[in-house]
């Protein structure tokens, strides 16, 4: 995550997280350290995984005090191990104490997503299938969670509702039919936007392909139904498989013939990666 993205999209969200954690003061930190004193603390990984969110971790402390310095020994996307020293953070001890939880919350969550994503991507190696995330993200954390998917080797689906056309069952119901929904979308949306349609039956697959959908999402179909759907589409549209996709289900989806597999589990079900700040002590 570069500095421009951080300033435009992340800073206000990080500040909201800090405001949630510190309403007017950090009573614990101010009790043990009533005056400013320089200190340092280690950032240590406590289990094997993929690290993501180091710049977000740093930004938490920088927003509290621009004088804080972070020396990194790893980079986003790196495979990390139990006991590995990831960084050293140096600055006002009160800032290190007050920012610790928020900084770790971001880093643990993002690293958990990157780890789960990397594990899932590895299961698709050699298939030519692209792993996608979804919009099933934590409110106000999408910029962090979708970045973490990329750090883990996955690919982002549309970022939000302004980013592309995806006609789901209720859109189709509102328009009256798949054909009419696609017709309206192509007439309204900018021509650079692809039109994706979610289908649940082979009859809907035929209608979506004939109506000119650019991408057809096969939602909650059986393996046999999806294989038949790919044959029906016959290259007229790109194909995406979706519906309760987890690591455990990837094996049965590998030979269906779709171009993409989307998984909400990447962002809504990945466990955090255990990371801690340890060995804080004054310096000088």
Brief digest:
The protein is built from ten helices and twelve strands.
Task: Describe it.
This protein is of the alpha/beta class and 284 residues long. It contains 10 helices and 12 strands. It has helices spanning 3-21, 27-32, 54-64, 93-123, 142-151, 169-175, 178-188, 202-210, 223-233, 265-268; strands at 38-45, 49-50, 69-72, 79-80, 85-92, 130-132, 165-167, 195-199, 215-219, 238-242, 260-262, 275-282. The strands form 3 sheets. Strands 6-11-10-9-8-7 form a 6-stranded parallel beta sheet. β8 (195-199), α8 and β9 (215-219) form a beta-alpha-beta unit.
Please report the total strand number as a whole number: 12
The side-by-side strand order for the widest beta sheet comes to 6-11-10-9-8-7
Shape: elongated
Low-confidence stretches: none
Determine the N-to-C terminus distance.
33 Å
Q: In percent, how helical is the residue content?
A: 40-55%
- Helix count equals 10
Query: Strand fraction band?
Result: 15-25%
Order of helices and strands: HHEEHEEEHEHEHHEHEHEEHE
Rg over CA atoms, rounded to whole Å, is 23 Å
Tell me, rounded to a whole number, the average pLDDT: 96
Structural class: alpha/beta
Helix-strand blueprint:
Blueprint: H1 3-21, H2 27-32, E1 38-45, E2 49-50, H3 54-64, E3 69-72, E4 79-80, E5 85-92, H4 93-123, E6 130-132, H5 142-151, E7 165-167, H6 169-175, H7 178-188, E8 195-199, H8 202-210, E9 215-219, H9 223-233, E10 238-242, E11 260-262, H10 265-268, E12 275-282
Parallel strand pairs: 6-11, 7-8, 8-9, 9-10, 10-11
Antiparallel strand pairs: 1-5, 1-12, 2-4, 3-5
Helix pairs in contact: 1-3, 3-4, 4-5, 6-7, 8-9
